Amino acid sequence: MTERADPTRIAKTLPERLQNPHVVHVVVAGDIGGAERFLVDLATRPSQTGVEHSVALMTPNPKLADLLRCAGLRLHDRGRVRENPVAYLWRSLGPADVRWLVDVLRTEHASLAHLHTFASHVIGTRAAAALSIPVVRTEHHTQYFVDLSTSMFTRWSLKRADAVVAISQYVRDFVADTAPYVIDRMVVVRNGVDADYFAMRPNVAEDSRPFRFVVVCRLEPWKGVDLVIEALVTVPEARLDVVGDGSERARLAQLAQELGVGDRVRFLGYESDPRAALAQGDVAINSSLDEPLGLSVLEALATGRPVLAFAGGGIPEVVVDGETGWLVYERSAGALAGRMRQAALSRGRAVEMGRRGRGFVDSECRIETMCDGYRRVYERLLHQGDETEPPKARESM
User: What is the mean pLDDT of residues 334-360?
Assistant: First the structure.
């Protein structure tokens, strides 16, 4: 790969980039998850982030394209693409998709390329290098650093990133430990929640009704929803609403039937707006393995619902045990059930915890705070590019 740019030509265009800064977000993904919903929140707020935004998308999932279009984002859609290891290698290492992305960046007069998903790392870095455009990476997860099939590719891209944003201190520390060369380019900007949209919702007042837990997530193995269903067996009369879809849905429904709690579990499917489901619940549960932060956790707290979660990943940064929810320190159905029984003992205590959770969101995790953090990252990179010494063309892969 030999993409290089003439740095003197790029330097001449820098004033225009500073006057009309534009960020192109590169997304290569097949699902709608926290990273994709985060992107909508960030990219639809140009006045708060200080830049204009557009999205270059590669996905096999038309619903993801629909989500971005419905949000009003300027979208460059590559069309349906395959999602498998061979397709990834060709997309990342071949010339066609990189050429397409270079054309998008050039068409948008991009000032920065912002990469969000693992599959966007190599292709986004290569395309940005062809135009000597700075690269911002948001680290939404850590798994691709430890998976041997992905680690080499993401590290190659990471070395060439101009700024790296971690969504939690947990993610920052993990990346810093595994790739210490990037520490001086890293900052933590927590995901934020639209606290006006996810406003406090009154609890259902009937004390006689069954206590209701709510899970909002993609139904994939690492989310651990099977543990919640197993735990429900020993939480008498409690109900569980599962909001989301994914490869595990059929298996989870079968598990609920086999364990005798099928009549106490409702599978509501994917909902673009989970507020109504949260309003029907008393406590939200997050059962993920090492959740990097959990946008759904913040949304639950914003609506005034305390969160019960395993104490891994970035969860302890946003859920305070005994104050805004309950933390489970052993990853087992039995330990989870114990905390669920404790939560179900007092609906009044859950309501008070929910109020404190909302207060935490207002002080620490509003979307305005998140946008301001990214604005500062963008401004720093834009002004770095306005120095007298022209930017160097990046190494090629």
Answer: 95
CA triple 161-187-37, angle to 5 deg: 80
Asked if residue 397 belongs to a domain, the reply is: no
Cα angle for residues 168, 54, 16 (degrees, 5° grid): 105
Distance CA 14, CA 280 (A): 52
Cα 244–248–251 angle (5° rounding)? 120
Instruction: Give the model confidence (pLDDT) of 47-93 as tens digits.
Output: 999 999 999 999 999 999 999 999 999 999 998 888 778 888 888 88
DSSP state of 223: G
* Mean pLDDT over the full length of the chain: 90
Two tokens, residue 100: 């397409």
Residue 239: domain span: 212-364
* Same-domain pairing of 370 and 359: no
Handedness of CA 22, 28, 31, 35 (dihedral sign): negative
Confidence of residue 207 (pLDDT cuts 50, 70, 90): low
| CATH number, position 132 | 3.40.50.2000
Tokens representing residue 44 in the block: 């639809």
Domain tally, the chain: 2
Q: Give the tokens for residue 93.
A: 């290492």
